[in-house]
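Lecture 7 notes: from sequence to structure.

We start with a single chain of 491 residues. Read the sequence below before looking at the structure.
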Amino acid sequence: MTLLAELAAAIGPDHVLAGPAGAPFLTDWRRRYTGRAAAVVRPASTAEVARVVGICLRHGAPMVPQGGNTGLAGGATPDDSGRAVVISLARMNRIRAVDPLNDTLVAEAGCVLQAVQDAARQAGRLFPLSLASEGSCTIGGNLSTNAGGTQVLRYGNARELALGLEVVTPDGEIWNGLRGLRKDNTGYHLRDLYLGAEGTLGIITAATLRLFPLPAAQCVALAALGTLDDALALLARARSGFDAALTAFEIMSGASLDVVVRAFPRQRVPLAPAPWYALLELSDSEGEAHARERFERVLTAALDDGVVRDVAIAESLAQGKALWHLRESISEAQAAEGKNIKHDIAVPTSAIPAFVAATDALLERWLPGVRHVTFGHLGDGNLHYNVSRPESMPEAGFLARQDQVYRLVHDSVQAHGGSISAEHGIGQLRRDELPRYKSPVEMALMRRLKQALDPRGLMNPGKVLPPPARFARPPGGDAGGPAKPDPRRPG
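Now the structure, written as tokens:
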């Protein structure tokens, strides 16, 4: 039998899409990558996923797992060979179990994140992973990329929210590791191999997720700041004053909110213009009055001491949502202005002011008039350091310099002890940069893991790991501007 015939027999012909029917699955969310595939398959159970993997293995067909296709690094898009089978997990969308006494929920990989949040809330619990794409991203994709979001400061990344996994291995076997245990010291922790691996070591089909008590009240405030050093001082005060009740501390440049107001005139910043703003969220276990009293005490002291210029505390749920909407609209507003060069980086929180000052200056010297749209999760050191073209420069000319901008920013990240990907993953976007910023020992260990678990290299090939001999790791970098390209580097 042919590959397509076997797949149709295994999961039903209606769920094997070829030709134009599969086109929506072949382009990533940012429309940066478009591939080709032998077929797109939509299994409905873990057993069907295992059958699909077994068939692909026999035919030597590469496999590309896909969730909500909302990723930002091209990790769920096939290459252009037309040989791959895209395995969409969207039909695997059941909440299998909720255990409020154990504070766990078992969800299949195709469950939309918002559906998981709603199921937890119906049981009187909180699932705290929160992303702008939560209405369309899926839990399998969240775990495969170790998603972060706005509440990492209190609850951690997706890795910390998964107690157990169910995985189909590259040879079509099913590993059931869904035990809802906080303590399980029985050898290698296999779960951590698959979290953040972007489907290159196996396909996550379900997960046991950690739940938390619902807060009695949430309070949101926006603070205007003069400098990033002031933001760090406010963060220190908030941590000291609120401890674990501080669930979010977001930073936004004044320029980033200017972009939002230009794109969406109905949105308003309720404070006078400032170079920086911080968005704080407090989740209180006692009630709204108690939360507001704590907010007022800490923020009033910060005002009196000159740490912040002004503060607006939300008076209602609607006002709190409006403040969050400012933060969540930045990426969409940037897209409305045209294409930009995005960076999802992490540096130690204490190094953020120095990183931003140094990198802004380097870019300005190299590309005068460049615009910086910087925002992100200050509490955990993750910045979305986005770069927009000088107004006088055509978009095509700006995008032609993309590789040099990446190199300059990423070299600066490394110089400040950081990482070139904080929460979006490596995918295709950063794959070829990885050897420059990871040691040869790290790269060799990653390759050994890939070879051991996926010896035929069929599981999401071309993601995370570049071909072994394709890039050299140069000795150090050029601090004064973009490094010279490796002569072996294509393009």
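The first strand starts at residue 16 and ends at 17. Keep this in mind for problem set 3.
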